[in-house]
Structures are given as C-alpha cells and as structure tokens.
Amino acid sequence: MDLIIVVDMQVGLLDDSPKHDLSGVLDRINALTAMVRRGGGKVIWIRHCGQPGECFEPRTPGWEFLPALIRQSEDIVVEKTLNDPFVGTQLATLLADLAPRRVLIAGWATDFCVDATVRASVSRDQHVVVVSDGHTLSDRPHLGAAAVIAHHNWVWSGLISTRSIRLATTHELLSETASRSDT
CATH number, domain at 74? Predict the structure, then answer.
C-alpha cells in the first residue's frame, strides 16, 4: 500500500507572493491522492498551526486547506507547529501502524516543510518517493522558485538511506500504477 503525505497546502500560503506553478501542483496532488486511494492507500494531509495573528492561525481562513484540493472523509489530518511534521505529532505512530510500501511526499514549501518531511521520513526508515513536480514555493530573495525546486530535487536524490529515496514525476507515478493494473 502506498501512502501520500501532502504538506501545508493551506489558504494562508496565498497571503504571500505567488507560488511556482501552484495550479499545476494542485492538479497533480489531486491526481496522486486519487491514485493512492484507488490502490487502497492512505492520504495524510499535514496542516500547519501557526501562532495567533499568523496566516496559519488555527480556525482562521488561512488555516483551512485550499478549496481546490479533493479531500475525502477517510483521509487523515495531522496538525503540526514546526517544519518537521513528526515532532510533537502522531505521524510516526501512524506510519508504523499503516506500514506503507512507500511514502510519497508533496506540498508546500519546498525548502522548509517539504524538505523537513522528506528528511524526517528518510530518517525513520521509510521508502520515500518525492513527487518532483508536486511541491512549490515562492521566489526567494536570493534564488528563483524553479531553481530552489531543482536544487532540492537534486539534494534529495542523493540522501543516504537504509531504505530507498527516489524522485518521480506525477506522470511517472500514474503510468507505473496504470501499467501494474494492466497486468
């Protein structure tokens, strides 16, 4: 069974500068969450809970998930307060109980919470697949968003793990699933 972790795709991310290919990332996340569900897997939505007055303050409009995301009642929501969604949450226990074949990771922001999720998942001995076209961020003062994404995809492909870490596009993942169901 596959599991997909979708990180911080909340309305508050719209409060800042535009995100690189946000509409495409949303479409790809929706396609992948549907694929995981069809295969009997689980979808875990990570929701950042900010401090009072911040764009992700709990129970404010920015805290809500982006309305373009297709969520289901059987999906799991994990609320976090730090970049790393394993710290102070039940995420590690959930992964241990579910024992997925592999963990797909997508979301926002590439260089903060997505990076922390990838590294923490690898450190917890999971077979990780980073959706290389499934994460986004804004341009940074020193580097454009596309370059940050390319850099992180490169870094993640070289992480040392006792399991496996792989980068794959949404198209590759959907094609693999289609070819498995054809046999």
Answer: 3.40.50.850
